[in-house]
From TrEMBL:
GO terms for biological process: DNA integration. It comes from Punica granatum. This is Integrase catalytic domain-containing protein. GO terms for molecular function: nucleic acid binding. Signal peptide: none annotated. InterPro entries: Integrase_cat-core (IPR001584), RNaseH-like_sf (IPR012337), RNaseH_sf (IPR036397). It holds the Pfam family rve. PROSITE patterns: INTEGRASE.
Length: 178
């Protein structure tokens, strides 16, 4: 079960006033949405649809003390799924007004495919068991992409199955690293 932090930052970009961010403590995986307003219902919907439905029921949810993150509806959601809800200190990101809503998916890709010092692995590899093929590797093929493109479908499937079998070992190594 995952332990997620939830924060939101404020900025004005193409009508998107807020960014709601969750971070899994173990894998450092991030889920993010942009919102015109951070209502209690929007937060609860995000937690149900984008966190619980994708990652399963959380052991603990840590939020800042903002009213739209700590309220009766969120408390009821946590009670329904038996999630321990804790509060942390407030978090406010400072943004420069750029069109961040358009660049957000690329920023997430960069974050999720960079090695975290705390785990010694990328969040992507801890979630999916392999490293991602980045857009630049398609434009300028890397040795990995060239090698995989020459595999027959059955051989590729066999290698992928072997990689997935090793994900438990990779996660254990990461756990020992921390």
């Amino acid at each position: 079960m995952a332990l997620f932090n939830v924060w939101y930052g404020r900025n004005w970009s193409n009508g998107h006033l807020f960014i709601l961010i969750t971070i899994d403590y173990f894998t450092k995986w991030i889920e993010v949405i942009t919102l015109a307003s951070v209502t209690t219902k929007a937060v609860a919907r995000f937690l149900k649809r984008d966190i619980i439905a994708r990652h399963g029921v959380l052991a603990t949810l840590i939020t800042d003390n903002a009213k739209n993150l700590s309220n009766k509806l969120i408390d009821e959601l946590c009670a329904q799924f038996k999630i321990q809800h804790r509060n942390s200190s407030l978090y406010r990101s400072q943004m420069n007004g750029a069109d961040w809503h358009e660049m957000l998916p690329f920023a997430l890709l960069a974050y999720q495919t960079s090695i975290r010092l705390s785990t010694g692995a990328t969040p992507y590899s801890l979630v999916y068991g392999v490293e991602v093929v980045s857009p630049v590797e398609v434009e300028i093929p890397s040795m990995r992409v060239i090698a995989e493109s020459k595999l027959k479908e059955a051989e590729w499937a066999k290698q992928r199955y072997e990689q997935l079998n090793l994900i438990g070992e990779k996660r254990l190594t990461t756990l020992c690293h921390g």
